[in-house]
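Hi C.,

You asked whether I'd gotten around to modeling the 189-residue construct. I have! Everything is below, sequence then structure, no commentary in between.
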Amino acid sequence: MEIVPSGESQDLGAMFEATYSELKGVAARCFARERQGITLQPTALVHEAYLRLTRQGDFTWPDRVTFLAYAARVMRQVMVDEARHRHAVKRGGEAARITWVDGMVDGSVGGSAGGKSGGDLPQSFDVLDLHRALTRLEALDERKGKIVLLRYFSAMTLEEVAEALDISLATVNREWRVARAWLMRELAG
């Protein structure tokens, strides 16, 4: 994700304030059907992401979509760190499990359909398994990894993903279907 040097666009505070309710909605969807025992709540996820963003320096973002994409990466890392903490054997932790947000399976995340996935995704999976699978996908095809990140963690529509990545909607649709099927296979074991 491209970050604009300070002074050319909205700063973190302004962008965070402008997108706060949207970020909370994204976080709430991430935890919509989470299993009991997870201590991280949607509001805490958003606030922790903000704190981490402030520690990264004085950046500004050219637009809402770019900011949401970057914030999605940070929220993903917060969730992974929380899962690792809970999973730590020395602490007697258990694997953190979350479920797909509404629409992840049918492609309607963010309000744009995009077709059926062609199979059933696991309804519940380990956050670390998702992180590992997404990391493998990003290594195989960086753009497909970005599409999943934007769709799943930012709940962007297909149109917004196309805009954020500066590619056609048809390309996003095609690569989203392939990436979703690949993740389905990886997470199903």
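If it helps when you're writing up: Residues 64-87 form the longest helix (24 residues).

Thanks,
B.
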